[in-house]
Fold this protein.
Amino acid sequence: MSQLPPDPVVALTPDPLTPDRDVTHAHFQAGDTVVVLKGVAGGELWGDAMRVVAPSWHLLTDEDGWRLRDATGGQQSYITAHPRYLVHLSRRCPDCLIHLRAMEDALLPKYPGDDALIDCGWYTTTAVGQLVHVADVRAGQ
């Protein structure tokens, strides 16, 4: 997994796994380093690496979420995200490794040997700083 500069080619690709991923809020803890997988680059998955900061409420899913800090800054240094969007980078936990492998198996064959940065178009950030997966967007929001 690599974090690359933001010059992606947007290739809307269905996310076959994240919307149904069953991971609890307690799976992550403040201080964990995580990645939000967003696409493929150079035969690897890529995404935004962040640090889990504090519990938060994810309005769009009506569930506990996590406040995340992007150490590299960007347009928004802090966002709130649902736990199912996150994959551990700071430790090798079985659930995250299984999810990561399944995402690799589903996505890498679609973009073999492609050196372009492919953004699969799964996430947007709301006006209130919440990261939202396209499967979680509610009508009218």
About this structure: The chain has a mean pLDDT of 88. The first helix runs from residue 94 to 107. The radius of gyration is 14 Å.
